[in-house]
Amino acid sequence: MPHVDEKVLLVSTFLVVFVVALGAGALGGVVGTGSSLILLPLLVVLYGPRMAVPMMGIAAVLANVARVAAWWRQIRWRPVLAYAAPGAPAAVLGAHTLFAISPRIVDGVLGAFFLAMIPVRRLMVARAWRVRLWHLGVAGAVVGFLTGLVLSTGPLSVPVFTGFGLSGGAFLGTEAASALVLYAAKLTTFDQLGVLTTDLVVHGLTIGAALMIGPFVTRRLVRRLRPGAYAVLVDAVLVAAGVGMLAATLSTA
Questions:
Q1: How many whole angstroms separate alpha carbon 151 and alpha carbon 31?
Q2: Do 65 and 121 meet the contact criterion of CB atoms below 8 Å apart?
Q3: pTM summary value
Q4: Are the C-beta atoms of residues 77 and 170 closer than 8 Å to each other?
Q5: Number of neighbours of residue 156 by Cβ within 10 angstroms
Q6: pLDDT (tens digit, 9 = 90+) per residue, 120-160?
Q7: Which of 103, 112, 144, 229 has CB atoms 3.0–4.6 Å from 91's, for a disulfide?
Q8: CA distance 222 to 77
Q9: How far is CA 156 from CA 20, 40, 221, in A?
Q10: Which is nearest to 62 in space by CA: 12, 21, 97?
């Protein structure tokens, strides 16, 4: 009965995705990024980039809603406005670009982008760049476009917001609120393009529900995490995601 076997395979595959999402949500709750980087390569392999990116976008909205709720009282709204105001329209442009180029190019860009963020992030930290409100606006425009195109730019936004002087719950909540605006703009574009099918939305919401658990169960760890350990976690996530995306590109060559 191949039809039954196919259904079993689909359910088993999605259960694996859900379990991975639980772990990814916990990681994202601790370091403020990483959940999309962990999940996106898996989703690309299973569904292809043009389904995986919108699906993960829906899940990312829910994940950021959870972070905003967890750290609501510590959010700094001026940085959110400065970052998200130019970032939202840039995300719309990036989302349109995503569906105008080849899926293989998207895979390659994702992998190269993740790996490139390792030296860029370390350079920003090493030089201790002081970020001001207008810098947040410029960064929001750049990161917004990349968010529309490659989905996850958390490792790039991390040094931007920490350079502004944010840390701990204030950083996690402010970065999440800013990212939420960018993802909302991106999903609106996907909806206008007719990409958000019922099946895709259901998958995205289910994955997002798993991601939402992380920020609430890891709040204590946030207060204990040392800067050195945080840097190692972010770099490890970038390497894993970058290698995974480049491997997906080569497998479809």
A1: 17
A2: no
A3: 0.76
A4: no
A5: 20
A6: 777 777 776 778 899 999 999 988 988 887 766 666 777 78
A7: 144
A8: 21
A9: 23, 17, 22
A10: 21
